[in-house]
From TrEMBL:
Residues 28-289 form the Brix domain. Signal peptide: none annotated. It comes from Trichogramma kaykai. Pfam families: Brix. This is Brix domain-containing protein. Residues 325-371, 386-395 have a biased composition (Basic and acidic residues). Residues 372-385 have a biased composition (Acidic residues). PROSITE patterns: BRIX (PS50833). Coiled coil: none annotated. Residues 317-409 are annotated as: Disordered. SMART domains: Brix. The lineage of its organism: Eukaryota, Metazoa, Ecdysozoa, Arthropoda, Hexapoda.
Length: 409
């Protein structure tokens, strides 16, 4: 049977190599998980924060109680995951940790207050939620993070590096649909986290013209002519234009209607949640372990820090020795296993050879016994009868020769 030819669709649609874009591989990716007491609010807040971190996060990640931190660290490399966000809940309260994978540092915050995204949206008079905004990373805005101390530099670096960097020369402004605002309050040492959707609208247009620009169907029932609808005066003060400080000249054309290049437009923010108010408690140089670089409540002397560092070094040394010993034991076990395997194979070969020798020995002995039995029968016949037996009486019958089919032919 001949080889079947490929169809036209198969020939035209050749398989392409699945290679990710370099920008996607180098972009910061994150895991958002929760640990500890699994309450309904913690689970919902975790899902809302995953929504904030889109598109470079595992939105449908299903973590289990038996999953340890090392499980996420092991898969972080192949999946290009650079950060991990952990919500943990205890009897004392809720905590939020930001960690750089795989070797730290780690920032630990105490969540003082939070509001879920659904509650934030439902409280808004004008809601602004659209799926297109979550196809690109948000813009990060930091306020009052220029204080003295290592913790401010680490916080600013952590929050900025969790999202892709923006190149002002090549950025497409139509992709900036969201922004994250992090504001540090010096009075109570808390951080306010806000998540907004960005909307750009043209300036200098009446309400009726805006409806036409936005492709909305106007109500012309009270107008005698279309000119009356267009030239209708401005409405109440509540619907007047925004503050002039919020007006900008667009350097490029946007995908929104009426937002052309070099035109004046207004920037409006619509909060989409969640809201989080948190306080920095601790900074560690490792991933949830290591030397404590900053602590809000516990302050140690230089002698205590040196003693802790000495104990930590001793622990690391003991761990390294245990790991080395475990590797040596593993190698010795593999060698013993290989030796046992070789000995078993040699024993099997030797046993097989001995069994073959015994079979040959038994075959020879059986032939000798058979010949001696034939001699005894002939002698007994001669003694009893008085004459020698016929030649063919006690002789072994010759074996029949087997011929193949080709020989018979």
């Amino acid at each position: 049977m001949g080889r079947r030819k490929k169809g036209r669709c198969v020939r035209n649609n050749k398989k392409t190599e699945d290679v990710e874009d370099v920008s996607l591989v180098t972009a910061p990716h994150s895991f958002v998980i929760h640990r500890g007491l699994s309450t309904e609010h913690v689970v919902e807040l975790t899902k809302d924060f995953r929504r904030v971190m889109e598109p470079f996060t595992a939105t449908d990640l299903k973590e289990r109680k038996k999953n340890f931190l090392k499980d996420f660290v092991q898969v972080a490399g192949p999946l290009h995951v650079s950060h991990i966000v952990i919500f943990s809940c205890t009897e004392r309260g809720m905590y939020l940790k930001f960690g750089r994978m795989p070797r730290g540092p780690t920032l630990s915050f105490k969540v003082n207050d939070f509001t879920l995204a659904r509650d934030v949206i439902s409280s808004m008079k004008k809601q602004m939620v659209f799926t297109e905004a979550f196809k690109h990373s948000p813009l990060v805005i930091l306020n009052q993070f220029s204080g003295e101390g290592l913790q401010f530099k680490l916080m600013a670096s952590m929050f900025q590096n969790m999202f892709p960097a923006i190149n002002l020369a090549t950025i497409n402004l139509s992709n900036l649909r969201r922004c994250i605002c992090l504001s540090y309050n010096k009075d109570d040492k808390t951080i306010d986290f806000r998540h907004y959707a960005i909307k750009v609208v043209p300036v200098g247009l009446t309400k009726s013209v805006k409806k036409l620009v936005q492709a909305k169907i106007p109500n012309l029932g009270k107008c005698k002519d279309f000119e009356d609808f267009v030239k209708k005066p401005a409405v109440s003060d509540s619907e007047a234009e925004d503050d002039p400080d919020h007006h900008v000249i667009l350097p490029q054309k946007l995908s929104s209607r009426g937002c052309n290049e070099d035109s004046k437009s207004a920037i409006r923010l619509y909060e989409i949640g969640p809201r989080i108010n948190m306080s920095l408690i601790k900074v560690e140089d490792g991933l949830l372990e290591g030397q404590v670089l900053f602590h809000e409540f516990i302050h140690k002397t230089d002698e205590e820090v040196a003693a802790l560092e000495k104990a930590r070094a001793k622990k690391r040394k003991a761990k390294a020795l245990a790991t080395q010993k475990q590797e040596e034991n593993k190698k010795n076990k593999e060698l013993k296993k290989e030796e046992h395997k070789n000995k078993s194979l040699e024993g099997m070969k030797r046993k097989k050879k001995e069994s073959e020798i015994l079979l040959q020995k038994y075959a020879k002995e059986s032939e000798k016994v058979h010949e001696s039995d034939e001699d005894d029968d002939a002698q007994y016949y001669e003694e009893e009868v008085g004459e020698k037996p016929d030649r063919d009486l006690f002789t072994k019958k010759p074996k029949r020769m087997k011929f193949s089919k080709d020989a018979k032919k």
